[in-house]
């Protein structure tokens, strides 16, 4: 039996060039602000968790709940966007971001075990916000001609470069700005940044949701069986899971090896810059070489980053691990995201995109929680070694899927 063909792209009505530019600029700025907001829990979450947690093994639980919040909110956010429009979902997500900062303030003020669980609630809300923020990349492609969708997606993600600079510096500037407890001013700033992001998103003009008589297009089972969609989910999930797995453990590992908070924040700054800076040209690279090839390069870079980390425990080893990890994530995740855009029609988009993100973030949650336990029990080297098996399996599966797709599409296979 012949494999099902990919759907013919059904584009939303094209927006005018001026509206497209306005949307891309606003979404890129919002990506920068919201990305800076999301850096805060990664920069201080392990330290705050370690300080407040009743048991050391629970130190990274707040960061795990950040990812759980992302997972739990992807499908509801997609449903809200499909029913009421993306901007409504954006504003609700921004509200969750404001609450995340304010609840974190209460957590560090209260302290102790109660403060720990309040901080867990804060990161859960922050994860809900981050889930909505990650849909900015897909929103950038709405109303854009198919040939430019990958570039629009990539340009919005480039806003994360500013996040890489602002996020860690936001922590450095504010962590001791107010009297004890530490980080209280940081969390106030986190709430303010989310509120500013909401104001910018008010000006985004996106196509209205499409409600077809076919109730949203094909059955999800048919979509999930597409080789392209399987490849996109696999690469997106592994890229994001391993990036989060290593990034969650790195600041705490640096702290445990005697490196300063400023050093870990600077490492995170360069990591986030490396995550987003290539986005200025990743879209063009995808258009030139194809999403699948870019995904393979991303996975290889993540493997190289883990290998560099195994070379030593100096600050420079941590920094280069984080930088290469960020580059690998960019190619792997953006390549996978661009491939998702080829797997759905216009009336399927919010449903398919949210299911993709649900699977990606669900696996991330497992990786995030595992990183804290592995780091606590076995150390940083064990965390790095753990990255290699899933990378190898995904690379083999991705190559096999590419070969199968080419075989199905070849004349001899059709004959």
From TrEMBL:
This is MFS transporter. Residues 228-415 form the Major facilitator superfamily (MFS) profile domain. It holds the Pfam family MFS_1. It comes from Microbulbifer elongatus. The chain crosses the membrane at residues 27-53, 59-82, 89-110, 116-140, 152-171, 183-206, 227-247, 267-287, 294-312, 318-343, 355-376, 382-401. The lineage of its organism: Bacteria, Pseudomonadati, Pseudomonadota, Gammaproteobacteria, Cellvibrionales. Keywords: Membrane, Transmembrane, Transmembrane helix. InterPro entries: MFS, MFS_dom, MFS_trans_sf.
């Amino acid at each position: 039996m012949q494999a099902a063909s990919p759907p013919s792209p059904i584009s939303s009505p094209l927006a005018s060039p001026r509206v497209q530019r306005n949307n891309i600029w606003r979404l890129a700025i919002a990506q920068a602000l919201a990305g800076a907001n999301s850096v805060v829990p990664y920069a201080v979450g392990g330290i705050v968790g370690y300080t407040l947690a009743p048991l050391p093994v629970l130190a990274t639980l707040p960061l795990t709940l950040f990812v759980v919040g992302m997972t739990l909110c992807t499908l509801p956010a997609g449903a809200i966007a499909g029913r009421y429009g993306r901007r409504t979902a954006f504003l609700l997500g921004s509200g969750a971001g404001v609450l995340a900062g304010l609840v974190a303030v209460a957590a560090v003020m209260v302290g102790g075990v109660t403060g720990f669980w309040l901080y867990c609630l804060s990161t859960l809300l922050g994860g809900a916000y981050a889930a909505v923020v990650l849909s900015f990349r897909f929103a950038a492609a709405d109303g854009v001609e198919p040939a430019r969708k990958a570039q629009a997606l990539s340009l919005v993600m480039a806003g994360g470069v500013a996040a890489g600079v602002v996020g860690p510096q936001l922590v450095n500037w504010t962590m001791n700005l107010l009297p004890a407890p530490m980080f209280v001013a940081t969390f106030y700033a986190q709430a303010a940044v989310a509120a500013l992001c909401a104001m910018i998103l008010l000006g985004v003009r996106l196509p209205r949701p499409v409600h077809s008589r076919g109730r949203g297009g094909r059955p999800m089972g048919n979509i999930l069986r597409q080789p392209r969609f399987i490849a996109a989910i696999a690469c997106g999930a592994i890229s994001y899971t391993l990036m989060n797995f290593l990034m969650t453990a790195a600041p705490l590992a640096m702290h445990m090896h005697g490196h300063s908070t400023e050093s870990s924040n600077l490492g995170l700054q360069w990591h986030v810059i490396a995550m987003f800076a290539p986005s200025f040209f990743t879209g063009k690279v995808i258009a030139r070489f194809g999403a699948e090839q870019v995904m393979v390069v991303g996975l290889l870079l993540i493997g190289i980053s883990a290998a560099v980390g195994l070379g030593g425990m100096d600050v420079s080893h941590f920094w280069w691990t984080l930088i290469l990890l960020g580059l690998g994530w960019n190619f792997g995740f953006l390549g996978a995201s661009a491939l998702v855009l080829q797997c759905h029609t216009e009336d399927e988009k919010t449903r398919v995109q949210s299911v993709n993100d649900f699977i990606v973030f669900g696996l991330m949650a497992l990786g995030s929680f595992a990183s804290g336990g592995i780091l606590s029990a076995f150390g940083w080297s064990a965390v790095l070694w753990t990255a290699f098996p899933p990378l190898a399996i995904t690379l083999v599966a991705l190559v096999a899927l590419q070969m199968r797709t080419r075989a199905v599409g070849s004349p001899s296979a059709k004959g």
